[in-house]
């Protein structure tokens, strides 16, 4: 049976009730309000009412019967929908029919919620590690090369298993790439992937902007994609407002707020009742006077310094939380306020450090010429901390833990995962952790860190870092030292003395 409130969805305060359901239905089809007690429509035209009154009287009974039939049809449709959601297969709006029989009861429930529900994507962007999709109700879904993740509590409680947001998003994306739905049911796995469909990260390669345009999602400039430095006005306002928070970065600040200058708003239209931050964000984007005042209160140089200090502090706290967990089993007391949302598993820590370095690199270009010294300090600090962790983090722990998930010593070694195992010559995707970002800075900005970088080089030589990594870092050290002596030239990486003997 249809919900009782369905019949009243067109009513509002001050509007008169229609005399009959037939009149209400005819008014809705005509795109006007039902007649009021005086028998007048919206335009108050008595003649038009007189012309139609006879026809209405003749058809009223037939209309009421039709409405009753329609209610019965609605009831049948709803009963049919209820039956389909309880079945082992489900057909979505994308036209794909999914087979849920391989899911456990909890994953099946999340799949049903996602595949039959509707979420709004505030914005999407390509990042170095994949693609980010910011949803309206705060969660952010990340599509990586080998993994899918979401910041919602449902996913965080059972990482590795898709939440309703992941099931929904993958269906939306696959629907964009399929010329026609598969002829048979598509089996879903617990991680949200469909076994017979191509990996979505491969389909999205170079196509995210076209997908966003088709689905009417806001597409944000990709991090470090080279399409011009600087920030949009909305990004600048977000940066300024987040600068007043001691821990929140612009990337994590109110992802539900999205505005563009293409849609104009008056000052009155910028007001969001009960939400001061949202109101100030809109005013900053649309009101030149407010934007100018915000920029004076928090200049670009100050925002840059605050940003890189925050990233450095977040990385320090992340590793401190990880060390404490490995030694004692103690998790962060306030997981929501801790970096990475309280992540303490080694794979989560490594991923978060990689994201931090990626954010720094993107912001070096976006904030130029401000903040380069702070960026260098943050990068060197992260590199130094990772270089000092060439060890088994569980060695000598006080809670008797032998491994996290049956991995070996190397698989929980932060240094090995970020530097020791990376070989860009054989695996271009591995990159040069931190070094790629440091090379984006002028050698003069690295001058004050030259001695510390040389100490790091000596340490990772002992730790047997890959030769290409040693060559690259050696070139950076010499460039920084040359800048200190008045030179600005960066030596070629091939000239590094990386073949020198390592101490045993």
From TrEMBL:
Residues 139-174 form the SWIM-type domain. Residues 1-91, 482-504 are annotated as: Disordered. It comes from Penicillium alfredii. This is SWIM-type domain-containing protein. The keyword Zinc-finger applies. Residues 30-42 have a biased composition (Basic and acidic residues). Keywords: Metal-binding, Zinc, Zinc-finger. The keyword Metal-binding applies. Coiled coil: none annotated. One of its GO terms (molecular function) is zinc ion binding. Residues 43-84 have a biased composition (Acidic residues).
